Amino acid sequence: MKASAPGKIILFGEHAVVYSRPALAVPVTQVHVDVEVLDSPRKGIWIHSQGIDLHAELNSLPADHPVGSVILNLFSTLKISSLPALDISIDSTIPVAAGLGSGAAVSVALIRALALHLSHPLTDEQINDLVYEIEKLHHGTPSGIDNTVITYAKPVYFTKGRPMETFNVGKPFTIVIGDTGIPAPTKESVGDLRRLWLRNTNYFESIFNEIAQISLIARRSIESGKPELLGDFMDHNHSLLQEMTISSPELDKLVSAARNAGALGAKLSGSGRGGNMIALVDQAKAESVAGALISAGAKRAIITEIK
Ligand code: PMV
User: Fold this and answer.
1) Half-sphere exposure (Cβ direction) of 111: Cα atoms closer than 13 Å
2) What is the per-residue pLDDT across 1-36, written as a single tens digit (0 to 9) for each?
3) Is the CB of 251 within 6 Å of ligand 1?
4) Domains of the chain listed by start with CATH number
5) How far is the CA of 271 from the centre of ligand 1 (A)?
6) Model's pTM, two decimal places?
7) Fewer C-beta within 10 Å: the chain N or C terminus?
8) Which residues, at least 6 apart from 288, have a Cβ–Cβ distance to it below 8 Å?
């Protein structure tokens, strides 16, 4: 059985989402994880992943291995006690630790392919819940936005602890994603912000409220076919993230480069400090903005249409 899952980016509301403010995230289908599960002629559960040079039997992996823990969690949920003989191949084009959701996408595709192969098809809701549990094992206190947008593979308006809402894109728009090439340490930036928030709660709460407003208006603009309005919202959200100490000189440099090359607006996306930034562009300018990001030091630029 085969299954795949897309990457994702956060358009608005990262970090504030940890404090129960709404955030918007969209799937990025240009990058994806593909998993194939086959019955194996030899005993055991064999996992092959060219990308991370992994060829190992499940029992030989450390207990907290991300792939191993997904498989064991699924088996325990499905109450499967005798392990079948399987060959599992995992291929991913999603850059790791870059805010594109590679970990959640591996979990979603793996659970989907395994559940189908074992004739225990799961609903998206069940998959989302399972992947959230896995995300918690590896990331501490994730908001749940990654697993949600990747499981449903649709634009998501997400508020922690509330039923998730998908929404429609009134008119397609183009985003360029620029990668600083620096790992984005989610746990660290979330932890740093928490310490600052504890010391100066009112100040940060008012920033989070401003971000909540941006997410709300941005969603309306996307739904009503006015994506060109998102540029200013991105600039505003980026300056609030700077105030939250979540940006970095490298991210700021790429954000400026995108704006100077004609982007309608730009901001960091995800955990910050490293990882990605995003820029809203007219389709005709996408290549030149991508080129400007590479010239300004981006390791990679991905052009994606949100529809
Ligand atoms: O770096 P990413 O795209 O995985 O996003 C992290 C987003 C945060 O809001 C910083 C954390 C979270 O759990 O939502």
Assistant:
1) 33
2) 999 999 999 999 999 999 999 999 999 999 999 999
3) no
4) 2-166 (3.30.230.10), 173-306 (3.30.70.890)
5) 5
6) 0.91
7) C
8) 261, 262
Regarding the beta carbon of 255 and ligand 1, being less than 6 Å apart is answered no
CB of 5 closer than 6 angstroms to any ligand 1 atom: no
From the CA of 145, give the closest atom in ligand 1. 14
Q: Is 172 helix (H, G, I), strand (E, B) or coil?
A: coil
> What percent of the chain is helix, strand and coil (3-state, nearest 5)?
45, 25, 30
- Count CB neighbours of 81 within 10 A: 7
The full DSSP string for 14-66 is TTGGGGT--EEEEEEEEEEEEEEEEE-SSSSEEEEEGGGTEEEEGGGS-TT-H
The Cβ of residue 63 has, within 10 Å, a number of other Cβ atoms equal to: 7
For residue 300, what are the β-bridge partners?
179
Compute the half-sphere exposure of residue 202: CA atoms within 13 Å on the CB side of its CA.
0
Query: How far, in Å, from the CA of 31 to the mean position of ligand 1?
Result: 18
Q: What is the pLDDT of residues 230-283, one digit of tens each?
A: 999 999 999 999 999 999 999 999 999 999 999 999 999 999 999 999 999 999
Distance from residue 187's CA to the centre of ligand 1 (Å): 9
**Which residues have a catalytic role annotated?**
146
